[in-house]
Structure formats: C-alpha cells, structure tokens
Write a structure and sequence with these properties.
The protein is an alpha/beta fold. The chain has ten helices and twelve strands. It folds into two domains: about 220 residues, 4-Layer Sandwich (Metallo-beta-lactamase, Chain A); about 60 residues. Helix content is about 35%, strand content about 20%. Strands 1-2-3-4-5-6-7 form a seven-stranded mixed sheet. A five-stranded mixed sheet has the order 8-9-10-11-12, covered by helices on one side. A hairpin with a 2-residue loop joins strand 3 and strand 4. The longest helix is centred in the last third of the chain and has 21 residues. The protein starts with a strand and ends in a 5-residue tail after the last helix.
Amino acid sequence: MQKVTPNVFTDTTLRGCNPSMVATSDGVVIIDTPQLPTRAVAMRQEAEALGPIRYVINTEHHVDHIFGNFYFRGAGPIVHHQGVADNFMEVTPSLDSFDYAHEAIPSDDPEGEAIFPDRETYFADPGRADIVFTGDLTISLGSHNFELIHTPGHTPGQIAVHVPQERVVFTGDTIFSECQTWLMGSNVTQWLAALDRISQLDVDWVIPGHGPVVTSAYLARQRANLVDWVQAVADAVANGWSREETVAKVNFAERYPVDVGQGYMMDHIQTLNAGSIWDKLTAGRPA
C-alpha cells in the first residue's frame, strides 16, 4: 500500500475503490474495503500486523466500497451512514451488485474465485453496519479523531472521513482523481455543496475514491467536471435535442481514462452520465 503519512495508507492500484487504513496508538481504522477477495484478505492481514482493527468505515454504498466487508467480519465494528444502510448491496433491474462484484474475478482476481462466496452465503452476512448514523459522527481512537462528515451528492449516504491529526481527508467518490467521474443517480447540486464543505478542511492530502492521491487544489477540477457535464446537457436540452441525440453527442471521453480495470466501460459511462442528467433536466428536477 502507498504510505501517505507515517500512519495513513491507501492502495490506488486496484480495480474498485481506493481502500485505505489509518494506524493509531489504539489500533487500526479501515476506510472502505477492497472489492477483490484476495486483496481484501491481504489488506486485513496488513492492517492486523499494525494492530487490532477497531473500526471499518464505508464512505458509500456502491459495491466497490463495501463488498470487501465480507472478509472483514469480526475484525471490528462496521460503520456507515443511514444512506449506505438503506442501499447496501442493492439489486435493481439495471444492476445486480453481487453479479457486478463477481464479474471482476476472472480478469482481475482469478485466485479470488476460490474464496468468493455463493449468493446465499454472502447475503446471510455480507458485512452490514454495526453502527449506523445520520448527519455527522466523530469517532475518537487513541490520539486520533475520525470526523465522518455527511457529504451527499454522488450517493445519498456519502461521507468524507477527516483525520485532522494526519491532515488527511478521505473523500470517497466525491473525488474521482484523474479518471472518469461516474454520475449514475447522483445529485450534482448536492455534490457541489459537498465539495464546498470539504474545501473548508485544513488538510495536506485528499485521498479520493478513485485515482491518485491529490491535494485540495483538485477540488476545483472535480467541480469543473461536474459543471461541464451539466452545462453540456443543459445546452442540449435548450437546443431541443432528444435523449438519444444528447447521449450520442455529449461526451467527455477524451478528458480522462476510466479507472483501473474498467476501460471497457467508457462508452457506458458517457451514455449513463448524459442520459441521467437529461432525464432530470427534462423532468424539471435538479441534475
């Protein structure tokens, strides 16, 4: 794992989110768990070599941030926002989160097949939260404080984890660093407010949900990405373009690559982003 500060570690090289951990004088805090089974097992071993795991915190409900909870059961209380609990491992007509997790095994973690649970075993105990909160929550451990800040936008239960003693904030997918932003069912208005809130923190390092570690300066780039998407689709609607025309013509594929292991999803992301914003704007809802 990459050592960001003497006590903060993250891995930006895996398919899925950037799983991270913070070592304190009283144990280790995990922030998001690896989607890939062998990496989840390895991360747990790395963390436990530094001390007992005291908490596992999830920044959102998307499968790449929570699937590894299965391999951290019993390691320490799992903590996530009510919005994560409400949508944990959602299965919808358009996305089966369990199948999506399994889809990555052949290409990205073939050895993980041996420890990938069947559906019944997984859903019997997937690693749901022991502690569910609304609003904000501060957890103190040793000499460290973990400020869990509700930053909805990308998802309803999105949080940032600010560790002032390390001058670090873990933003989850409020920041996609140097890679394509997935809008999905996001509320961009809330997302921009979340960026404003994070910008008020006095930190040296921003650990994003995806992509390389950055500084607070990157918040402006993330904001521009969101604003550009909304403006481009708003212009399309103003010009009378249909949903099909908008999806075909509004495209930011040249701006960034897709994050690790998902290059084949580029067209899907462009279609998903443009279509979801078009749907909201034409229904008179905020993007």
